[in-house]
Structure prediction request, 250 residues.
Amino acid sequence: MIAISLEGKTAIVTGASQGLGEATVKKLHEAGASVVINYYPDAEEKNLTKANAIAVQLGERVLCVACDVRDKEAVRGLFEKAILAFGGVDIVINNAAVLRDKTIKKMSDEDWQVVLDTNLTGVFHVCRMAAETLRPEGRIVNLGSIAASLGFFGQANYSAAKAGVEAMTRVLARELAKKRITVNAVAPGVVLTEMGKSIPNKVQMAMMEQIPLERFGEPNDIAHAILFLCSPLASYITGQTLHVNGGWYA
Prediction:
């Protein structure tokens, strides 16, 4: 039996108060890692409540940190708090993302910018801090998307941002190779998170016809792929985008 152990490692997961981020935090923690649950500091503190609930469920080796990844100083603070709590950082998962779907004709400058700022520039801010602080043989896993390849209707901003993340991943893999830090992306298809479940039924049915495995993804389907890329089993994999989508290709 081959077991994945991340004991002694510390992982930061952005956007981790729900959905894919929550599933990933739980899997990394189950493998033995200390985990930093990053959440967006919303005015109603709903994300704080969700993050704290996850932390209570997991128990030890958990830290919740508010951080808007669009703010580079807040990102620096996120890493500083992680290092203070656990002594260093070994794994970074860039999961934080937003949607503002509209056709280009109807897309405002704000709709475009907020998605690029969060989904691409936010990843840049986190990766830059990771490049400065990650211990040797660390792991960076960025969340791409099937949208970067297929270009879904109404997602010019989201698709462009995710394509940029996947390109950045390939560059960082070269730049960080000397420290034996691997950088990869995971590109999910449609996953049954709150975001995925919000897709209209008619659209879901049309999407399902394109998926050979005849089902949408579950959060753990993605979390398991991320766990593998963070493990010693993936030490010779870098600069890659792993598509986890049930065989859904154009």
Q: What stands out?
A: The chain has nine helices and seven strands. The mean pLDDT is 95. The chain has one domain: 10-191+219-242. The radius of gyration is 17 Å.
